Request: fold
Amino acid sequence: MHFLLATEPLNGHPEFFENLGYQTVGILVVITSLGTLWLCVEILGRLLNAYAHQAAPAQSPAPAPASPPSTESSITPEICAAISAAITNVLGSEVQIHSITPSPKTQANPFVQAWSVEGRRQIFHSHTLR
Amino acid sequence: MHFLLATEPLNGHPEFFENLGYQTVGILVVITSLGTLWLCVEILGRLLNAYAHQAAPAQSPAPAPASPPSTESSITPEICAAISAAITNVLGSEVQIHSITPSPKTQANPFVQAWSVEGRRQIFHSHTLR
Amino acid sequence: MHFLLATEPLNGHPEFFENLGYQTVGILVVITSLGTLWLCVEILGRLLNAYAHQAAPAQSPAPAPASPPSTESSITPEICAAISAAITNVLGSEVQIHSITPSPKTQANPFVQAWSVEGRRQIFHSHTLR
Amino acid sequence: MLKDYLDFFQLTGFPSITWQMPVMWAIVMVLLYLAVYKGFEPLLLVPIAFGALLANLPSVGLVNEPIGAMVSPVAGSVIEMHVKPGEFFEEGALIAVVSNPEGREEIHAHARGQVSVAHKAVGDRVLAGSLLVTAYSSEPGGLFYYISRGIEWEIFPPLIFLGVGALTDFGPLIARPITLLLGGAAQIGVAVTFMAATLLGFTVGESASIGIIGGADGPTAIFLSAKLAPHLLPAIAVAAYSYMALVPLIQPPIMRALTSKQERLIRMTSLRHVGKLEKLIFALLVTILCILLVPAATSLIGMLMLGNFFRECGVTDRLVKTAQNEIINIITIFLGTSVGMTMTGTRFLRQETLLIIGLGVVAFGVSTASGVLMAKFLNLFLKKKINPLIGSAGVSAVPMAARVSQVEGQRADPNNYLLMHAMGPNVAGVIGTAVIAGYYIATVTR
Amino acid sequence: MLKDYLDFFQLTGFPSITWQMPVMWAIVMVLLYLAVYKGFEPLLLVPIAFGALLANLPSVGLVNEPIGAMVSPVAGSVIEMHVKPGEFFEEGALIAVVSNPEGREEIHAHARGQVSVAHKAVGDRVLAGSLLVTAYSSEPGGLFYYISRGIEWEIFPPLIFLGVGALTDFGPLIARPITLLLGGAAQIGVAVTFMAATLLGFTVGESASIGIIGGADGPTAIFLSAKLAPHLLPAIAVAAYSYMALVPLIQPPIMRALTSKQERLIRMTSLRHVGKLEKLIFALLVTILCILLVPAATSLIGMLMLGNFFRECGVTDRLVKTAQNEIINIITIFLGTSVGMTMTGTRFLRQETLLIIGLGVVAFGVSTASGVLMAKFLNLFLKKKINPLIGSAGVSAVPMAARVSQVEGQRADPNNYLLMHAMGPNVAGVIGTAVIAGYYIATVTR
Amino acid sequence: MLKDYLDFFQLTGFPSITWQMPVMWAIVMVLLYLAVYKGFEPLLLVPIAFGALLANLPSVGLVNEPIGAMVSPVAGSVIEMHVKPGEFFEEGALIAVVSNPEGREEIHAHARGQVSVAHKAVGDRVLAGSLLVTAYSSEPGGLFYYISRGIEWEIFPPLIFLGVGALTDFGPLIARPITLLLGGAAQIGVAVTFMAATLLGFTVGESASIGIIGGADGPTAIFLSAKLAPHLLPAIAVAAYSYMALVPLIQPPIMRALTSKQERLIRMTSLRHVGKLEKLIFALLVTILCILLVPAATSLIGMLMLGNFFRECGVTDRLVKTAQNEIINIITIFLGTSVGMTMTGTRFLRQETLLIIGLGVVAFGVSTASGVLMAKFLNLFLKKKINPLIGSAGVSAVPMAARVSQVEGQRADPNNYLLMHAMGPNVAGVIGTAVIAGYYIATVTR
Ligand code: NA
Ligand code: NA
Ligand code: NA
Reply:
């Protein structure tokens, strides 16, 4: 495919202000791209959530009793062990875990939290090859 | 390697009967190829079987007592489970197995049958990548 | 990179003595190469050993009590089994092991020996693909 | 600087969006939905669809040929020549125009570069393949220019067949070799579809490639259409893999229509055990016989049986595992995306594609029917009857079609297990399709 | 014979040792020490360093081009032509000399051969790419002539990205998409370093390649410098991978200097669960948007998201495992050694290399600072504050930079777990760097 | 139509069967029998034999070169030119004839195509490599035309060596480095066989390739003969791999004849533990020294020690597993079949093949003897005696030859374990053979 070059391509040794303008445009392009992406993902998330809430009511009561109310007591020893293992794994054994308390702002239930931990663990494991 | 073209190669937009003849030859070629193969494999199987029967007598009595007479009672729970697992695996869990009875025409002993089941299971597992 | 050909390259059908000389040079080249390597490795080994001995004293007494004195009784059943398995593995099952006695000249402790056995086992396993 | 920023959007892909692109994006979404949520051959359709997405975005550096020799794609006269030795040109620049009675052909630059030699001048006559211009550029070709060599050079399909051979147990076929004929009969669907395509106005090369959809064998279909009708490759590949997934919907009505209740109840004797030696000789036999009879099928049949020999000989474990896993997986990723990459809107959004999709159903249907009818025909002569429901498995689509035989058999008699019997014609269909593909390659001019 | 033996040493590599070689051996030893004993990205630095060792030995048959067409690398006049048709020549023989106002360029033979045609004579004018001599040889090119095609043709970096995509969970980014802006802001380090490099006298192509070190993304850095400044590739690759390993040393002081104790104590709300559909749509969104906005980034972004789609769709297990393991491992071996192979003493032992290493620290530092400052800037508008310590993770260097955020966060408050929050900007940085690389490719002339 | 059907058999391969083909099929069966039922290096011999089967069938599209430039393979005069620009030609058509005092050489078309340019006319003089005709075709080259590039370009053997290095523990060699000399001495068999081959009328290039069979190192043998005597490659490869499997038959009588009972009873002191650092330095030492001394061995030695460095450094686990498995397995499949593909009847069914097979035994025998005698020679000077039975392991054939040493040792004294001691010369033999191969490459003209 063929693109007309609207701007002269930068070449050789440009002057300072020419270069500054060029770099600013570059950063704006990056921010525009990632910003657009942010908006799209934000909208997508809300759409899917709205849809999920519409679809959920019929089935949401079912899982609720299975997971106890999300208080501090909800951190079972299993979850504790999982978190410890994950953190040791990621940060090395020289790190000590003093206590695990659920973030007070967190609405997610412990299963979701465990999922997060596990998800992160996978990420950290995977990225050794760049 | 070089082959003289005995027939004119088919090209462009042939007439109906020319095409019909051409396709019939094609199917005959396929049937000839696979038919020849059939004959060869048939002969091969008999040769090997005849050879096996000549070689077998000395050792065939040995395995016989090990496998009980091939009656209906020969389907052990293990074989039953193996067959169920294989079939569930292949046909999905919506299939229910009502009963397993050895085919009355079958001379093979349960070990051969189990082999067959296992062999098929492997085939079905393997062919997910085409 | 470019190398001047000091010697005329050998080509066509050389005479016997020309060829003999040529081959002798070839073998000398091989011996020179591997001989130099021998010397270097010999020196390397001594340097590293000397360094290790300098560094060792502080920590060498520690492992000593852990490993019992390296007498004939030091061949534990585990090591015996490991050696048997390794040898069966390498030499095939038709070989029978009559007895395992530590080589009288050996100063190495059983752990080192076990290491050797394992190391060799790996080698033998690995080299099936040439 | 604000101007520069706005100017930059001249460089983005937005001005290059054509009406076909969003249409193709929608098609891609449908394919991905079928693959991910409906299980339509996802291992192939996911890479194909994602490749098609990339092909229908205004990408740069993805598919362009490397600069070097620019040749005339057709015979004719040079009527325009836009460059002189030493001149620089941009990507997409018009280099020359060649004209002949059938129209005019423009030669564009695939990347920035500089002309070294102009071999022809305005007015010169050229042949297909004549060198027009030699140019010089430090830009390489696009990523998929290189990866697609595996399709252009017909390397990927035989390597997939190497893995398929390593995954296939020909035991059931060897135990009852007459089922080879069922796999042969299913090729009638290929021949009938070929004729139908010719009647609809396709050339013979195109018709052969369309017909082979009825063989229900992805790699063979890709191999043949890369050779005889590369411009139809994406439509044929998509049709072939989609219908393979639809086998459980397409086949049963045909099978039931062509068989009586009594025939569907036929029980078949258990298959005998097939030993290693027999399997090894079979692999060699197929290789020798098929290559002698249809030399043009060599690379498919040869690799299939090489993989199978690895599998059965029992002493090349490392190699068989590599063929079954690494080789087949790596090639599948590259094959799928390369096929998708050819699926540009201008090529895919045509009436031909609809015709091909329609003809594909015909092909599968006739193949199914021929297999069933061949089984009924053989039953006229056989003492040990064949349940005609296994005839439909001759279309290959391994192992889907064999499963369909099993399910239909159990619908008539829940205690009838046709699965293993259907594997014979199922794998025979793979050989049959390779044979008829070889016949077409040998006798059809592109 | 003794004479022959001594003569043989004329054939050995000893006479070809240059002063650069032992210096490079020492550098190789340092790199290997860092990789093996200090854990500096060993998967890349070990092959690079070993390749560099081979490149700095008087090897034969390792990197030479195959004989065939010899073209002039520059425009000018042929002032010497040393061969005639039919003549044999040895490896390294001087074939021709081309002269132009900027100097004289010698064309040497890469292997033994025989001249078939001499296309030019003394006094002829030639262009870059003009054919000088066609020759014939039975010697192939060197091993790494062929393997390095993967870098020259820009195939390896996108294939590595295929594997990276298959290894990356974009969930944390999708759960809090605003962190995309942190990954974007970190590219300011790239732009600033570009400008600094230009001020130090590098050309724009070189400066862009140097700046991208700040992106902390090995494959992107290799991709860009192979395109815009291939002669700097080894220095840039070594700097990029070394600094990635040094992230835990470079980042913390900057992070602490730019944040208040209070900011470092900010706790962030737990991330919501992100479902499969959302992840799949995200992969397609990134592909479409980024390619539309920056078409030149297609092969990087396209392969990254293809691998990620394989990962998230759940039905292509075989393919995702192959992309995560076989493909990425095989390509890493070849990529690393090929990069090392370009690291010859004459190319590496230059002042530029020191400047690049210096500029690399600037790049990492400014990127880190920009990420942190962007987080503080966003906090001016946000109700749910972002802990600015995760801003530094926007440089990518996955997952090292996110670990640094976690460690620094816990230094302020041992109960604050920033790890998962830092993964968002961390993976956003990969996309951001690919975007700015695409911008440079589209707008900078080599 | 019946006529058409019968005509079709003109298209089959039957008319192209030559007397050599069935003979070669029989040879293939023998090789497969040895590989599958006798365990003769099946990983190599199965692909080689299956490749040879394909090579000796009248295949189509398997090995042909792609159409494009047709060059004269020899110098001489064009005495016939059968095509004109614009003309179409069929596969196999005679294009031109070049004649010189040594005979006439016909140039045939490898596929259908159309002539673009005829560069020469009848009467013109041409050199080897001169362009005769440029043609155009949509047909690609054959599958193994492409796969065999790995042998032609000498890529496969070094990559196999990468895997071999990753599989080899040089510990026993480092623990007792004097065994390097045993591995060196075994190369005397190579030199002696070279001389014997020359006396039997082979050229030096051929003789070097035959001699190297005595090195008992498949990849090195293939590497050298691809370079110096490609027409003998199949015979040499088959001989090399077969004799490696026959080591347990060939070596023991020689070993017993050359040693006294007392010598066979010598017990050797246990090997010391070799640490990681020592192994890493060893890998670098071998690389530097061998390349300096024999630059032509670079690609073999370099890849061998790169693989070994991966193995021993302990931080590149992913890479070492890939080198040991995927890379070596994939390349083995392609290498083996490519070698087999060169084994056509016209090339293999010659007196030379019998001579090569005979010389191969000589090579193995003399190598064995030289290793044993070198051990006895060294014992004259050593305090800690070497059991000369481990000298024979210097031929490499890892680990077969070391096993033979162990078995022979235990025959004399059931409590003597020579296995680990024999691994030293065994792996030294690999280096020794690469060194002498490098010597030949540097000094022998093909
Ligand atoms: Na089929
Ligand atoms: Na980045
Ligand atoms: Na050797």
